[in-house]
């Protein structure tokens, strides 16, 4: 993983850029080295870079003025939410303004009649559910970082969570967006209605990782809390049995609210950290949550328990209280920080595979572990095949970070090889940028970049992310070359 080299011409104009930003946001510009240190990385902390300057706008009008100024003066921008990205999507650049949206932290409206809420992008994921829980509603996508991650970042990465199997990813729970383009123009996509006519531009923007515009308002769908929710905890001797049980549950036509899997190292780390009552002797653990009317949940639990026994479950527990259900999930949601008990550092990967290939991929991952000489703990959304291998390493040992990166790249290549994809919810960012050709052909990538050019022809928004080779928009047929003179001849290429 490499950061793009800073443009000396932009760096030399730093004082003028800081001054211009202070005219737009007098109380929201950070330019001192010690204060900038807080923004030097996102959740992918293996990559660190001090930003040129950080600006924290309060209003959409300020965001529009900032983008308009940056486009006019050729200054790059890295949009940033809560900074919890695990793919380097909001890693700062040394020649770019970091546009931090943390001040956009208000819930603007809760409309229970239309089952939606209008929120600013800096509102945390969990805050939406907490704002409506007393009325019996909630917001369905629930990433493990939901206590900290922002809804704007969720839109940028199309975040999921443990309940995305039944209720969908962020894209399935959005109704509308307000976004500022690089020109400073403010546009609205969707609304409070179920569907919008014409091209699905909201679908294009969701998961675009800050490459197309800056989101300043989000309208999300709210759901009624189910009457009953119970979780079944299943322990197995080995991951192959657990994977077979996952396939059996889905094949039986059961769509759980959540279906999560952990292997032995992850089970023991999470249990030591949370004390959720996990069977530490198990080689694999499944958590299956069923929700809906009580009579339906009871019937589904009986079927899941029967399937678990048929596939060799050695431990079987079903939650009897809400506190017990939440405790089951607490261990799973704390699995990433719990890995810190067994390793100084880890890389969290994010590939998705067909469910039927789970046993094969887990076995081959162990082969890769031996090849690279590094341990791996597996925590993932088994129901939709979204893997989150945690590669354990020590950055203080020379060469281990590089070996961890090579191990992670091999895992992602394996995911594509078996018919999967490079990312399920964490995005491409810097982490998977150079692996894009593994999944996409040259023309596929060019077509994606043509969309980028339509929104940001100067490539000023989050440059150096997602695409391994940055084509000039003229090469992609988006800009007119007149008299042999290419527009934007100083456009950097990475």
Structural summary, described in words:
By secondary structure, the protein is an alpha+beta fold. The chain has helices spanning 8-11, 14-24, 33-36, 60-73, 125-132, 151-157, 164-167, 201-205, 239-251, 264-274, 294-310, 322-333, 335-338, 358-372, 400-417, 436-439, 442-455; strands at 29-30, 53-55, 76-80, 96-100, 107-111, 116-119, 137-138, 174-180, 186-190, 214-221, 223-224, 228-236, 258-263, 284-292, 315-318, 345-348, 351-352, 375-381, 386-393. The mean pLDDT is 93. It folds into 5 domains: 8-100, Uridine Diphospho-n-acetylenolpyruvylglucosamine Reductase, domain 2 (2-Layer Sandwich); 107-224, Uridine Diphospho-n-acetylenolpyruvylglucosamine Reductase, domain 3, CATH 3.30.465.10; 228-336, Alpha-Beta Plaits, CATH 3.30.70; 343-436, Alpha-Beta Plaits (2-Layer Sandwich), CATH 3.30.70; 443-494, no CATH class. A hairpin with a 4-residue loop joins strand 18 (375-381) and strand 19. It is built from 17 helices and 19 strands. The strands form 4 sheets. Strands 12, 13, 14, 15, 16, 17, 18 and 19 form an 8-stranded antiparallel sheet that branches. It has a 5-stranded antiparallel sheet with strand order 5-6-10-8-9. Residues 47-225 form the FAD-binding PCMH-type domain.
């Amino acid at each position: 993983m490499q950061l793009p080299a800073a443009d000396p011409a932009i760096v030399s104009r730093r004082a003028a850029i800081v001054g211009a930003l202070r005219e737009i946001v007098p109380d929201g510009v950070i330019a001192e080295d010690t204060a900038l240190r807080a923004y030097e990385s996102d959740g992918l902390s293996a990559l660190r870079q001090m930003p040129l300057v950080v600006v924290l706008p309060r209003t959409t009008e300020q965001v529009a003025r900032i983008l308009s100024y940056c486009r006019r003066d050729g200054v790059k921008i890295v949009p940033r939410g809560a900074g919890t990205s695990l793919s380097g999507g909001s890693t700062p650049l040394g020649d770019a303004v970091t546009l931090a949206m943390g001040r956009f932290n208000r819930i603007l409206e809760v409309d229970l009649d239309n089952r939606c809420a209008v929120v600013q992008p800096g509102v945390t994921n969990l805050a939406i559910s907490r704002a409506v829980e007393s009325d019996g509603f909630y917001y369905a996508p629930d990433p493990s970082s939901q206590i900290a991650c922002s809804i704007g970042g969720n839109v940028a990465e199309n975040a999921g969570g443990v309940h995305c199997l039944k209720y969908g990813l962020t894209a399935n729970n959005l109704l509308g967006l307000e976004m500022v383009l690089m020109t400073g123009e403010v546009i609205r996509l969707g609304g409070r209605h179920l569907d919008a006519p014409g091209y699905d531009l909201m679908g294009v923007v969701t998961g675009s990782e800050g490459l197309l515009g800056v989101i300043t308002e989000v309208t999300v769908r709210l759901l009624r809390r189910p009457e009953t929710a119970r979780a079944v905890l299943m322990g197995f001797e080995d991951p192959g049995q657990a994977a077979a049980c996952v396939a059996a549950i889905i094949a039986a036509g059961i769509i759980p609210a959540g279906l999560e899997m952990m292997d032995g190292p992850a089970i023991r780390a999470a249990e030591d950290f949370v004390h959720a009552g996990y069977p530490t002797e198990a080689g694999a653990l499944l958590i299956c949550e069923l929700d809906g009317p009580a009579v339906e949940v009871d019937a589904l639990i009986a079927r899941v328990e029967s399937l678990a026994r048929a596939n060799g479950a050695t431990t079987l527990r079903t939650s009897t209280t809400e506190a017990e259900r939440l405790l089951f999930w607490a261990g799973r949601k704390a699995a990433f920080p719990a890995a810190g008990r067994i390793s100084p550092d880890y890389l969290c990967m994010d590939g998705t595979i067909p469910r039927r290939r789970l046993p094969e991929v887990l076995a081959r991952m162990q082969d890769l572990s031996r090849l690279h000489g590094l341990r791996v703990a597996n925590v993932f959304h088994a129901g939709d095949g979204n893997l989150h291998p945690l590669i354990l390493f020590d950055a203080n040992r020379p060469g281990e970070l590089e070996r961890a990166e090579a191990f992670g790249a091999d895992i992602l290549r394996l995911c594509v090889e078996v018919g999967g994809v490079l990312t399920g919810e964490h995005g491409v960012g810097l982490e998977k940028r150079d692996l894009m050709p593994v999944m996409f052909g040259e023309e596929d990538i060019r077509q994606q970049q043509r969309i980028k050019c339509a929104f940001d022809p100067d490539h000023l928004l989050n440059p150096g992310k997602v695409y391994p080779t940055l084509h000039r928009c003229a090469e992609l047929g988006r800009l007119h070359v007149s008299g042999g003179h290419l527009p934007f001849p100083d456009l950097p290429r990475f």
